[in-house]
Amino acid sequence: MFEQSLLYFQQSPVSFYIFVVVFSLMIGSFLNVVIYRLPKMMHNAWYLECRDFLADEVAKVPAKQIKAINLSKPDSTCPKCGHKIRFYENIPVLSWVLLKGKCSQCKSTISIRYPFVETATAFLSLIVAVQFGATIETLLLLLLTWSLICLTLIDFDHMLLPDQIVMPILWLGILVNIKGGFVPLEDAVIGAAIGYMSLFSVFWLFKLITGKEGMGHGDFKLFALFGAWIGWQLLPILILMASVVGAVVGITLMQFKNHSRDQAIPFGPYLAIAGWITLLWGEGIWSWYLLQIS
Could you read off the pLDDT of 4-24 as tens digits, one per residue? Predict the structure, then answer.
């Protein structure tokens, strides 16, 4: 069945692109749930772990105060009035437009971020589909793309890069390249190791010199993830792009948003964006860069 569908989509690229866009819109709706709920799930788990470890100190705070939450329960509701979101109010993008960006009950504003995530997911997925066609590689890169969207927004909101997303995708990159899916397995393993150890070394060097932590541990793992997918050769251009964009954003925030020099800025989103671009067009960018400096 899968092979027949793949053959059909290879023979009809337009149908494949339409399928990817529609399916990705639905995935984008689910990503909104993950982006909102996963950090809450992590915070709840950390609290309960600390409560067990420090039982005497927090014995007066009952664990029942922690509201149970996972990716499927409780049902989605309006944060203002508690109205349960019905299925026809949760159609990607379309429901937001028909509801005019407001709750159907209390008329409070629904963040434009929800349709933005859905639309961005569909758009980026379409780029992958056009670039790689109806292939297994496209399916794998779509999984990576959707994961990076989650990581980017979670890091923006909470300065967290959850292992629940990063580690499976990192190991998937190794498995994909066992038979040279994107790069030879040797390059993938070395890339993962160099990706992790390079930022790990920078982290500790910066801490020894300044006494401060310059980045989170999740950044090491995310860089290792890209090393596993693209190999070690393209890591320099990836970190260069991420650093330049991060520096420009940081300077802009300090100049126009009264952002303190001591206030942390998440680096994960810039790694994610630069890594995704490098995966799709890295060879061309690297060749152009070498030509410019030669």
Answer: 888 888 889 999 999 999 999
Instruction: Evaluate whether 121 touches 28 at the Cβ level (below 8 Å).
Output: yes
Helices 163-176 & 136-158 angle (0-180, nearest 10): 150
**pLDDT over 70 (residue 57):** no
- Three-state secondary-structure class, residue 108: coil
Report residue 261: phi and psi, to 5°. Answer: -60, -30
Please write the tens of the pLDDT for every residue from 107-166. 888 889 999 999 999 999 999 999 999 999 999 999 999 999 999 999 999 999 999 999
Task: Return the SS3 of 248.
Answer: helix
Element housing 4 (H / E): helix 2-11
Which range among 10-24, 92-106, 253-267 shows the weakest confidence by mean pLDDT?
253-267
Token pair of 250 as six digits: 């940081």
Q: d(Cα 239, Cα 194) in Å, to the nearest integer?
A: 12
Token pair for 167:
């580690």
Single out the residue of 159, 164, 162, 271 nearest to residue 224, CA to CA.
271
- Calculate the CA 277 to chain-centre distance: 13
Which helix (H) or strand (E) element contains residue 252? helix 235-256
